[in-house]
Design brief:
This protein is α+β, with helices and mostly antiparallel strands. It has helices at 104-114, 133-147, 154-172, 188-200, 208-214, 219-230, 234-250, 257-263, 269-280, 284-291; strands at 17-18, 27-34, 37-41, 46-52, 58-64, 67-73, 78-81, 87-91, 95-103, 127-130. It has a six-stranded antiparallel β-sheet with strand order 1-2-9-4-7-10. A four-stranded antiparallel β-sheet has the order 3-8-5-6, with no helix packed on it. A hairpin with an 8-residue loop joins strand 1 (17-18) and strand 2.
Length: 292
């Protein structure tokens, strides 16, 4: 006899941080901290991943997909709940976790475009407490962007979302997908087309899907071939080019650093300063003093 899931609580948990209003596509990332209690979630159109951030292990009783699990969740432990799967949990001490929801339609699109899977028959396997180093790493990078209000930009978030989707399909799909191989990178013509587009749009928001569409490829396929061609990811190349353009503008004393930030695709003076220091080891102001 399958256990029944209790009725949901009257109140809806409120996240500490959420990407809801940051313009991220196909993914929602939220940080939660709860006092002891219980709750239920049921996402019709999203697959959900919970990544524990609790500094001390938390004992949870969980019910989903007709199964019950009770055990300690420590920092780095994850659970996977497929779309349309009710999930009940009860915890006996303060809990702290990151919830990552990926649109099921996006997963289906990636399955068909990237892994040549039949998306109509796609199902993910529910998991209780498990370890997955790749999901943990991606989750922590998304969490860092969430805390910094998406300073990395849309291209960075798109890249992480695509890598996460392919990993979910490879590791948690009920049917094992064929693993694609990528050899040779982009052709010279393809590479120049992409690099020229990036150069012409440095001051604008650039999405991974925009670059992939130029070559009629899936974003994941494009990212792999781009890295094979240049030895760096599309996001890293874009950041490098924006910093190089900022250097040229900084040599012009009539432009303010805030103006230069917007001209180069950064969303603020502080955003430019942070990225500039990470790449060059100095602030834009120090670089300007050195050059003038």
């Amino acid at each position: 006899m399958k256990p029944s899931i209790p009725h949901p609580p009257q109140s809806t948990p409120i996240p500490v941080l959420s990407s809801q209003n940051q313009g991220w596509e196909n993914i929602l990332v939220e940080q939660f901290q709860h006092a002891p209690g219980e709750g239920i979630c049921h996402y019709k159109d999203d697959h959900a991943i919970c990544l524990s951030l609790a500094p001390r292990p938390v004992r949870l009783m969980q019910m989903k997909a007709g199964r019950t699990y009770t055990g300690l969740y420590g920092k780095g432990d994850i659970s996977v709940t497929p779309a349309e799967t009710p999930f009940f949990a009860r915890w006996d001490s303060e809990d702290h976790y990151l919830q990552i929801r990926v649109a099921s339609q996006f997963i289906q699109n990636v399955a068909q475009a990237t892994l040549d899977m039949n998306s109509d028959r796609l199902e993910l396997r529910p998991e209780f407490r498990t370890r997955d180093a790749k999901i943990e790493a991606i989750g922590l990078m998304l969490f860092a962007e969430l805390q910094q209000e998406n300073l990395g930009g849309r291209l960075y978030i798109d890249s992480l979302t695509n890598v996460l989707a392919v990993h979910l399909l490879r590791q948690y799909a009920t049917a094992n997908p064929p693993l694609p191989t990528y050899a040779g990178g982009l052709s010279e013509r393809q590479l120049m087309q992409v690099l020229e587009y990036i150069n012409d749009h440095l001051g604008q928001e650039i999405k991974l899907a925009d670059l992939a569409q130029l070559l009629d490829m899936s974003p994941f396929h494009f990212s792999r071939l781009f890295k094979q061609s240049l030895g760096t990811t599309p996001y890293q190349y874009l950041l490098q080019q924006r910093i190089e353009r900022a250097k040229q503008f900084l040599k012009q004393p009539d432009r303010s650093i805030t103006e230069i930030a917007f001209l180069c695709g950064f969303n603020s003076h502080s955003h430019l300063s942070k990225q500039f220091r990470q790449v060059t080891g100095m602030t834009p102001t120090a670089f300007r003093v050195l050059c003038l």
